[in-house]
Amino acid sequence: MDTPFSLEMLHKIAGTHSEPLFLSPPWMSGGHTIEKANGTITYISYRGGLYGVTCAHIYDYQFSSNPPKWLTVHGLQRVIYQFGFFDQSGYKSLFRSLRLSDPSLPDIAIVRLDAAFASINMEAKGKIAIDLDSWIEPTWADLKCPVAFGYPTEHKTESEGLVQAPLISVTAELTRPIGPNDVSFLMASSLEQENSYYFSGMSGGAVYCHFADAPPSVVGVVFEGSPGSSIEWQNRTEESFYTREDIQIRAHKLTPDIFQSWLSIAGF
Question: Which pLDDT tens digit goes with each residue over 152-169?
Fold first, then answer.
């Protein structure tokens, strides 16, 4: 059985492993505002490499407008790191989507990060990568209610010219036990009161489990949440049976072997 744990402790851990991944117009035209869409980037270290992980649909969103939007994170002293560049043929993203050649592959995109990024951005902000080399495999059959984290795009605030993006956690029951051959899983629960959040923007966030005899362990990467956006919610048809008390999180299972397969597909 899952044992009680401090959600505050887990929240702090998740905050060190991730941050908002903003979709910014070229050269920050229009400024940095709460209306700017975002996903989540999760930092992972594996076999000597440092990587940033998000979702393939976040990658695709870059090219949904002309000119494309850049995927960016925002450092201290208003420093902006952009994961892309322009050459003679147009905009090139530094992320690699697993779905470029096959849309049936996992909804994952990965960027390889260098030591300079780790030092200037991550260390300065207290960010630490999830260490898959020391990953502890959970007892899958005992896992009942994982906890998903991410930065919902519609719940940012602005204060003194700075955009603040909240990190939220979503705890929900597994619809069935995660098996050894599963590549994804669904978390779903009905709450006793209405949920006030929309989960769009959590894509790319990590899902954790926690047991009494081991530190928190990552078990997945979020690729879909419901309720998603406020627009999607308002446009529901009469056939929809979901209420604001219902929450769902879909995630890709994450283990070192699975991550190795993602790297191979991405060409790293």
Answer: 999 989 887 788 899 999
